[in-house]
Amino acid sequence: MSLSSSDDLARTRVLFEEWRATRQGRSKIPDELWQAAVALYGRYSASQLCRELHLSAGALRSRLQETARAKQASRPAFVALPSPPFSGPAPAVLTAPVEEIRLVWERADGTRLHVCLPASQAAQVASLCTAFWRS
């Protein structure tokens, strides 16, 4: 392990040591210190973190699970929007010349249509769309 990669762990160890030296009684580890320890988990194993930061393995495991649940809950869910029946090509706003058009449509049954065609054949997109949605 290089010196630079262990600097973050050493800095966090110092923060824990400073907190332990100044804490009142048996107060709980502050959230900021837990966040620092959990942030190191990807680069260091749980056993290394427990050994270096003098943490309980169970407490660290609990914090890691809390963090994983929070990340899971904060992920945006996929929202499927119903598509109106296709009635012709949608207006396009082009800011630069286009050489190729790439489109992907997916129906509720999972069928997908991938279309790549030269821009010169853009007029045929409407008939392709209509055929796809009706089939």
Overview of this structure, please?
By secondary structure, the chain is mostly helical. The protein folds into 2 domains: 72 residues, no CATH class; 56 residues, no CATH class. Helix content is 48%, strand content 10%. It has 5 helices and 2 strands; from the N terminus they run ααααββα. A two-stranded antiparallel ribbon has the order 1-2. A hairpin with a 5-residue loop joins strand 1 and strand 2. It starts with a helix and ends with a helix. The model has no long low-confidence stretch (mean pLDDT 79).
Q: What are the SSEs and their pairings?
A:
Layout: H1 3-22, H2 31-39, H3 46-53, H4 57-74, E1 100-106, E2 112-118, H5 125-134
Antiparallel strand pairs: 1-2
Brief write-up:
By secondary structure, the protein is mostly helical. It has helices at 3-22, 31-39, 46-53, 57-74, 125-134; strands at 100-106, 112-118.
Largest sheet: 2 strands, antiparallel
Order of helices and strands: HHHHEEH
Poorly predicted segments: none
Number of domains: 2
Number of contiguous helices: 5
Write a concise keyword list for the protein shown above:
5 helices; 135 residues; 2 strands; mainly alpha; elongated
